[in-house]
């Protein structure tokens, strides 16, 4: 089964590029850019990656991102992820980045997006890997700051397919960004949002009803509402589920308790993704391995999950048909 998973061509739809920053590159960039980081060795870093919930992770994730300064740094970060795509047989990736994590530290929007974009252009040239970029608003920041970010993005609109919503979920409901998302839609952006990762089903309902999103990131809490489950099934609204992330952030106590098989058996459009692989102990294949080792997933389930990753993508209908 592992060999079967490895050789399957896959798409990844929920990957924060800042979450693919491996400790080795973090040290290298910290040294080059004279940025202090609170670790001396790679082992110390790995020990620090011991999370109790989403916020305990985010604190460390934002601290790590401070080593990224130049366009070349964002290129190196993205290129390292592309090499992992090659290893994991990911042939299409829709990549999140958090502009505000960088613009708030005085790094230009252009520096960030051009470094990421150049690596993705090279990925297509070198390996034939296709990709899209989605920019996420940080939900712990204000509506006003999200609007400023939306306006800044317009100069790079041809390189950004859509907008998302991430960071601290509890206390920052989708409603806070209703106007921003409606404006983003007017600009022609596709819409996704993290919802129902830690927070309850009301956040998923709001994301659908007020933000009009096309895809739900995480969404695992949907299981607590029969009405919502029916709607997700009927409309085949995709959920980008991230198993390793859910375990590392204690959304579920163990892989055996993860509800992905239940969501899939109900008939939802479920995909498997790695979220922040450098922080959550593994890339896409490792997420699948952890699932098959702990849940009664059959070969046909794996095929469904991988097919869903293409169906749920923002690829053209023509390209989807080619891959399916
Ligand atoms: C994130 Cl796992 C997760 N949840 C919410 N926001 C995030 N940003 C990066 N990883
Ligand atoms: Zn995420």
TrEMBL record:
UniProt site (Important for catalytic activity): 218
GO MF, one example: adenine deaminase activity
EC number: 3.5.4.2
Catalyses which reaction(s): adenine + H2O + H(+) = hypoxanthine + NH4(+)
Active site: 197
Cofactor: Zn(2+)
GO biological-process terms attached to the record: adenine catabolic process; hypoxanthine salvage; nucleotide metabolic process
Binding positions for substrate per the UniProt entry: 276
Domain annotation Adenosine deaminase: ranges: 9-324
Bound cofactor: record note: Binds 1 zinc ion per subunit.
UniProt-listed SUPFAM superfamilies: Metallo-dependent hydrolases
UniProt entry keywords in alphabetical sequence: Hydrolase, Metal-binding, Nucleotide metabolism, Zinc
GO cellular component terms given for this protein: cytosol
InterPro entries (UniProt xref): A_deaminase_dom, ADE, Ado/ade_deaminase, Metal_Hydrolase
Protein name stated in the entry: Adenine deaminase
Organism the protein comes from: Halarcobacter bivalviorum
